[in-house]
């Protein structure tokens, strides 16, 4: 007899489209995956946990000191893959290693930035790479307890990660006296349950503490006041996943496969109007045009119109500008946007920018945690304005109002969600103003046509 | 009331946190209750509050803050379709409309036979799989074109004897 669970299983993604294809370039994190080789034996066969052995001095050579591990990560040029691009080695060096109480390590797998779906494939198909990266980080900072906070919507991934944790414990990689050394580290999984804001690191900490996820003021940064009020280092899933390769191959090798100040590979989640949406791991500094080609290019007969290069919070760039960019923090920033989480949302010439902005504005209004007035009121106001323009009820002064509401949110809120809501609005107006004005002057062309 | 089996599941979650930080397990406990009972009732909140040694209002704050907790009973299958922009560009909106027609309900409603509740939701973190839909919080269904949506709904109806 078939059960409901069996039926639902038939619709589960296999990863073939998004992860197991030969269109990565020199992959490090996604290399050699096929969906059935996620478990510990397969990971070890791919060279897994060798970096940890090296760090603990179990490969015949001397153990690395904490300072050596941090120095290697600094040398690699690894920057946080969660979106802000903060140098990882530097962040690790902020941890007060001599702090007498409990310190914590947290992995941010709350991937919820519209367009981003890379951490899900890492955790589902290569969970041990994240576990190994976290153990090494914990060693470097002298931390004995860690949590991985996993987006509540990807529950199957949470279960997979818990299974991988069990394997790692059984193999002696996690727990007391790891591989017979004096170093101990306990790691647990924690799941969210539907709140975009919990991806913000201090909201995430509140959430692990069993509260609603409302961001805290920074500073103090988690490095000094984090989980349970104790020093805490938080990194993104992909950031931790990069660490084993860096330890095995050295900092300079990692830096060499990217660009100066932009070391390593980066996974880009390509969504929207391309023929083959999916995750693509490529060296930092790869031309955007190359990524577009890997993703199958545009659909026949369609032209590229615009790209949101780093998740929905990053400013949109018109085709002419993005086609000149390379994919690294510096190039995209110079073009006026952000590399962010690496979520590349592609839009072709059939797309209406007013409608697109309307949906994004709805999202930010829906997900504002409500703590700061400019964000709570401003996101609602932005959505109502864009909705009104889209319905054909826009007023001539609405463009100015939109711009001024967005401007007055920016820099006046506790967390970056306020900015994330405002930046897309300003970029849309900057690059696609005539499209908005056409809606205001002519009223909604669709409404007129169907009237 | 909460069974011993459920309590064992709670205990497994509580064990992840320091003894004086049991409250950290509240999200997991609430989701366990929701999986077993379909929603989070006030009575469940009270039991969890007592189990974790926290005020009931603090539990309620968590239930109401996070989008996925059902504060009311829902249909046997809660279908949450992502309509955020990346999905919208790949027929996420169309999938929602198709289900509205197929099930004869509007977004947010439950079918008369109590089988399906239809919702729109925000990014599920599976954007390249669009159209995507999350069923009962725990089952991600990918590449849901109209044919697959029909197949899913028809099969679930059949298995529940409501063809
Ligand atoms: N991956 C995703 O799903 C999403 C990613 N984002 C990204 O998040 C970014 C914003 O994140 P924030 O955490 O607000 O950025 P931030 O710039 O405040 O911090 C970045 C990291 O560096 C640390 N840091 C910065 N200065 C520090 C200091 N002086 N001392 C100690 N630590 C310090 C912070 O603790 C944090 O871990 C945006 O750029 C956006 O791209 C936003 C939404 C979702
Ligand atoms: C509204 C908001 C949502 C965020 N969501 C995420 C997220 O889902 N995943 C993530 O890694 N970082 C997210 N961040 C960034 C984190 O606050 C933090 O910078 C990051 O986890 C640090 O890790 P990294 O240095 O390895 O990038 C978000 C930030 C904001 C303001
Ligand atoms: S900016 Fe918005 S989401 Fe961030 S703390 Fe303020 S109200 Fe909450
Ligand atoms: S936008 Fe729909 S899953 Fe991300």
From TrEMBL, chain A:
Q: Which residues form the signal peptide?
A: none
User: Which species is this UniProt entry from?
Assistant: Giesbergeria anulus
Enzyme Commission number(s) of this protein: 7.1.1.-
Q: Where in the numbering of this chain does the NADH-ubiquinone oxidoreductase 51kDa subunit iron-sulphur binding domain appear? A: 354-399
Supply the alphabetized keyword list: 4Fe-4S, Flavoprotein, FMN, Iron, Iron-sulfur, Metal-binding, NAD, Quinone, Translocase
Record-stated family: Belongs to the complex I 51 kDa subunit family.
Name listed for the protein in its UniProt record: NADH-quinone oxidoreductase subunit F
Query: A Gene Ontology MF term for this entry?
Result: FMN binding
Q: Which domain of life is it from?
A: Bacteria
Q: Which cofactor does it need?
A: FMN; [4Fe-4S] cluster
What is this protein's function?
NDH-1 shuttles electrons from NADH, via FMN and iron-sulfur (Fe-S) centers, to quinones in the respiratory chain.
- State the taxonomy lineage: Bacteria, Pseudomonadati, Pseudomonadota, Betaproteobacteria, Burkholderiales
Q: Which GO terms describe its biological process?
A: cellular respiration
> Which reactions fall under this protein's catalytic activity?
a quinone + NADH + 5 H(+)(in) = a quinol + NAD(+) + 4 H(+)(out)
TrEMBL record, chain B:
Catalysed conversion reaction: a quinone + NADH + 5 H(+)(in) = a quinol + NAD(+) + 4 H(+)(out)
Its keywords, alphabetically, are: 2Fe-2S, Iron, Iron-sulfur, Metal-binding
Q: Secretion signal: which residues?
A: none
Alphabetical list of Gene3D superfamilies matching this protein? Glutaredoxin, NADH-quinone oxidoreductase subunit E
What's the record's note on cofactor binding? Binds 1 [2Fe-2S] cluster.
The family database entries (CDD domains) matched by this protein are listed as: TRX_Fd_NuoE (cd03064)
Keyword RNA-binding present in the record's keywords: the answer is no
Q: What Pfam family is a match for this entry?
A: 2Fe-2S_thioredx
The protein's superkingdom reads Bacteria
- According to its UniProt record, which cofactors does this protein need? [2Fe-2S] cluster
Q: Which PANTHER family match?
A: NADH DEHYDROGENASE [UBIQUINONE] FLAVOPROTEIN 2, MITOCHONDRIAL, NADH DEHYDROGENASE UBIQUINONE FLAVOPROTEIN 2, MITOCHONDRIAL
Q: What is the recorded name of this protein?
A: NADH dehydrogenase subunit E
Recall the taxonomic lineage recorded for the source organism. Answer: Bacteria, Pseudomonadati, Pseudomonadota, Betaproteobacteria, Burkholderiales
